[in-house]
Amino acid sequence: MTELLGYGTSAFQDGAWLLHYELHLPHPVEEVWAAVATPEGLPGWLAAADVLEPRLGGAVTLRWLNNEADGVHSGTVTAWDVDRVAEYTVDLHGRIRFHLEPEGPDGTAVRFTNGFPGSESMRLDCLAGWHNHFEFLADALDGRPKDWSSWSPEHWRKLRDAYVNRR
C-alpha cells in the first residue's frame, strides 16, 4: 500500500498538529467519494456514520468499529463540495478533510488533512491510525471492505513504530 499512499507527514502550527497524506488510487472519483462521504461507504474502511447530513453545517457522528474504548465522535460537516471535498470536524479527531481530484481516466488523487490539538504521542497514534485506515480504504475500493471482527492492533503498532523511526 505504501506505493499508493506513502507515509504521512506532520507539522505543528498554531497549537495544533496538521497531518497530510496524498493517495493515488486506481478508482474513479465517484467510487472514492462514495467511500469517504457516504454512510454506506465509510464502514468498509473507517467508521460507521451513525449520522451524516451531506451538506455544509450538517451533523456527523462517526463510530469507530475497531473496539476503540471511546469510539463515538460527533461534530459538523465543515466543508462539502460533492465529488470534490468532504470535511468533518469532530471531537477528539478534529478536522478531517478529503480533497479529491481526477487522476488520469480512471484514477483519483486524494489529498487528506487531519488537524487537531494534542500531544506528540497522539500525533504518532494518528499518523499510524490514518495510514492503517487508508490501507483499509484501498482494500474496500478493491471490493474487500474491512471485516472489523478480525481487526488487531498489531499492524497499527508496527506502523506507529515506523513513524517513530521516521523522525
What descriptive keywords fit this protein?
eight-stranded antiparallel β-sheet; single chain; 167 residues; alpha+beta
Describe, in plain words, how this protein is organized in 3D.
By secondary structure, this protein is α+β, with helices and mostly antiparallel strands. The chain has a single domain, classed as START domain (Alpha-D-Glucose-1,6-Bisphosphate, Chain A, domain 4). Helix content is 28%, strand content 38%. The protein has helices spanning 2-5, 29-37, 120-141, 154-165, and strands at residues 9-13, 16-25, 47-52, 59-64, 72-81, 85-90, 94-103, 107-116. It has an eight-stranded antiparallel sheet, covered by helices on one side. A hairpin with a 7-residue loop joins strand 4 (59-64) and strand 5 (72-81). Helix 3 (120-141) packs across helix 4 (154-165). The radius of gyration is 15 Å and the shape is globular. It starts with a helix and ends with a helix. The model has no long low-confidence stretch (mean pLDDT 94).
What's this entry about, in short?
The protein has helices at residues 2-5, 29-37, 120-141, 154-165; strands at residues 9-13, 16-25, 47-52, 59-64, 72-81, 85-90, 94-103, 107-116. By secondary structure, it is α+β, with helices and mostly antiparallel strands. A hairpin with a 6-residue loop joins strand 3 (47-52) and strand 4 (59-64).
**End-to-end Cα distance:** 21 Å
Query: What is the string of helix and strand elements?
Result: HEEHEEEEEEHH
Strand content: 35-45%
Would you identify the CATH architecture?
A: 2-Layer Sandwich
Helix/strand-derived class?
alpha+beta
Low-confidence stretches: none
- Read across the widest sheet, the strand sequence of neighbours is 1-2-8-7-6-5-4-3
If you average the pLDDT, what whole number results?
94
CATH superfamily: START domain
CA gyration radius, whole angstroms: 15 Å
What is the CATH topology assignment? Answer: Alpha-D-Glucose-1,6-Bisphosphate, Chain A, domain 4
Binned, the helix content reads 25-40%
Question: What number of structural domains do the residues give?
Answer: 1
Number of helices: 4
CATH class equals: Alpha Beta
Number of strands: 8
